[in-house]
Amino acid sequence: MTADIPYRFLHTPGAELSLLAGEHTLLCYHFQTDHEKPYFHPLYTADGVPLTAFEPWDHVWHRGLWFAWVFIDGLDYWEEFADGRRCGRTEFVPPEDVRLSPSGATVTVRLHYRPRDGAPLVEEQRVITIGLPRADGSYTIDWRQTFTALKPEVVLDRRAITAEIPWGGYVGLSWRAARTLGNFHALDSEGRTDKEIEHQRARWVGMSGVSDGGRNLAGGLAIFDHPDNPRFPTHWRCMADPGFGYFGPAFLLAEPWTLTPARPLTLRYRVWVHRGRTQSATLEEEYQRFTS
Predict the structure, then answer these.
(1) Closest C-alpha to 220, from 251, 183, 250, 193
(2) How far apart are CA 84 and CA 80, in angstroms?
(3) What is the pLDDT of residue 4?
(4) Which CATH class is domain 7-291?
(5) 29 CA to centre of own chain
(6) How far, CA to CA in Å, does 280 sit from each of 115, 185, 205, 222, 288?
(7) Cα(134)–Cα(158) distance, rounded to whole angstroms?
(8) CA 251 – CA 256 distance, rounded (Å)
(9) E strands, the chain, in order
(10) Residue ranges of the chain with pLDDT lower than 50?
(11) Angle at CA 272, nearest 5°, toward 271 and 277?
């Protein structure tokens, strides 16, 4: 990093990587955690608007910005239950590889998905690249994930959308907005807004809200789906209700995916964190920057 950038990374080996602005934590990526799966929390805009909720009472398995499958061979890796027996484990396999550069940091980790008392079913190599904030305060978090089956066949699935479960289809990379954000506004690459986005396909979705910190500050983030991803453009889950801001690409919304050792699955996304309200033209410009 150059001397004129007031940002620095703090690496706690075997646990987490934080980006600090002075003494303030801008973000923290917990790649090894006793909270069942890796996640980003806290996550702030450059001017201090908190963006992530952590274990809210209504969904205690929602942790900021995170990735989780729902079902792997029928076992739940998304929800968490007190006895733990109905849930799979997402385990960090040490060591991590952390590399710093003048433009940011890259963290490479290996994860195993397995039943509580069984051998791993899936191995993931996850590469997270965190960019330093630009002059406008925005910054990026790039995700590249490759999933490989560790048995002849593994089925990745979701709760199918039915009349009884109209809220199904969720899976994968997800953002649960901070409780201090309100007056949400969401839009997608196809011109839809708010509730119109739910269960539709788009290249990107962005959501912003206004903080209750007293200065009428707004902030938000967008998630970009890479054109090389299977099933591009992806389906989305999107909820912009009071007290419940949530969205994410739903790779399995329409149907399951069968993983084999000879057919690994690679997914790429960019998360773009920004000040102010989400603007369609700006998001499209950022998307083109990601895919060019």
Answers:
(1) 183
(2) 7
(3) 61
(4) mainly beta
(5) 11
(6) 42, 11, 9, 11, 12
(7) 37
(8) 9
(9) 7-12, 16-21, 24-30, 39-43, 65-68, 71-72, 75-76, 89-101, 104-114, 122-131, 139-149, 154-157, 172-176, 181-188, 204-211, 218-225, 236-241, 244-249, 257-259, 265-275
(10) 1-3
(11) 130
Tell whether pTM > 0.90: yes
- Residue 112 C-beta-side C-alpha neighbours within 13 Å: 13
* Cα–Cα separations (whole angstroms), residue 55 to 42, 52, 61, 182: 12, 10, 6, 18
Q: Are 237 and 248 in contact (CB under 8 A)?
A: yes
What would the two tokens of residue 67 be?
């990735």
Is the bond into 233 cis (omega within 30 degrees of 0)? yes
Distance CA 232, CA 254 (A): 12
Instruction: With beta carbons less than 8 A apart as the criterion, state whether 130 and 29 touch.
Output: yes
Q: Where do the domains of the chain lie?
A: 7-291
Contact 149, 120 (CB under 8 A): no
* Residue 268, amino acid: R
- Bridge partners (DSSP) of residue 241 are 244
For residue 111, give the nearest of 32, 27, 18 by alpha carbon.
32
DSSP assignment of 116-159: TTS--SEEEEEEEEEEPP-TTS-EEEEEEEEEEESSS-EEEE--
Nearest to 217 by CA among 21, 49, 25, 50: 49
pLDDT for the residue numbered 201: 98
189-202 pLDDT per residue, tens: 999 999 999 999 99
**What tens digit of pLDDT does each residue of 235-263 get?**
999 999 988 999 999 999 999 999 999 99
Place of tokens 């602005």: 21
